[in-house]
Amino acid sequence: MTSLQQVIQQKLDSEFSPLHLEVINESHMHGTPSDDSHFKVIIAAEQFDGMRLLQRHRAINKILEDELAGPVHALALHVYSPFEWHQLHEVPSSPVCRGGSTLDAN
């Protein structure tokens, strides 16, 4: 059986032939350790040269539309051109989950 993480990896690899690709399952950070629902994607590919950030995100969302319509609850995207990737010193870390509840007003 192929995991959802592997499906996402395969789809993005097939579509973009990226210079760099990481698909990280962050579900454990959100109180759902047995669930494949929260992912972070770090990708650098030639296709993103000259594209605005919104265009890059839309391109990935289109490839993953079935997953986003179903099991994927959250997808953090870090999308770079090869030049941007080589200039990057570190990828932003994911924020701590707030558990989906309202914040205490006090």
Can you give me a brief rundown of this structure?
With 106 residues, this protein is α+β, with helices and mostly antiparallel strands. It has four helices and three strands.
Overall mean pLDDT score? 84
CATH architecture: 2-Layer Sandwich
CATH superfamily caption: BolA-like
H-E order? HEEHHEH
Overall structural class, as computed from helix and strand content, comes to alpha+beta
Specify the helix fraction band: 25-40%
User: What is the fold-level CATH name, i.e. the topology?
Assistant: GMP Synthetase, Chain A, domain 3
What is the count of DSSP helices, taking H or I runs of 4+ residues?
A: 4
Low-confidence stretches: 101-106
Distance between the termini: 47 Å
The tally of domains stands at 1
Q: Give the total of beta strands.
A: 3
Instruction: Estimate what percentage of residues fall within beta strands.
Output: 15-25%
The protein's oligomeric status is single chain
What would you call the shape? globular
C-alpha-based Rg, rounded:
15 Å
Main sheet attributes: strand count, strand direction, barrel closure: 3 strands, mixed
The strands making up the biggest β-sheet line up spatially as 1-2-3
CATH top level class name: Alpha Beta
Tell me about this structure:
It comes from Pseudidiomarina andamanensis. This is BolA/IbaG family iron-sulfur metabolism protein. Pfam families: BolA (PF01722). One of its GO terms (biological process) is DNA-templated transcription. By secondary structure, the chain is an alpha+beta fold. It has one domain (4-87): BolA-like (GMP Synthetase, Chain A, domain 3, 2-Layer Sandwich), CATH 3.30.300. 33% of the residues lie in helices and 19% in strands. It has four helices and three strands. The chain has helices at residues 4-16, 53-63, 65-69, 82-87; strands at 20-25, 38-44, 74-80.
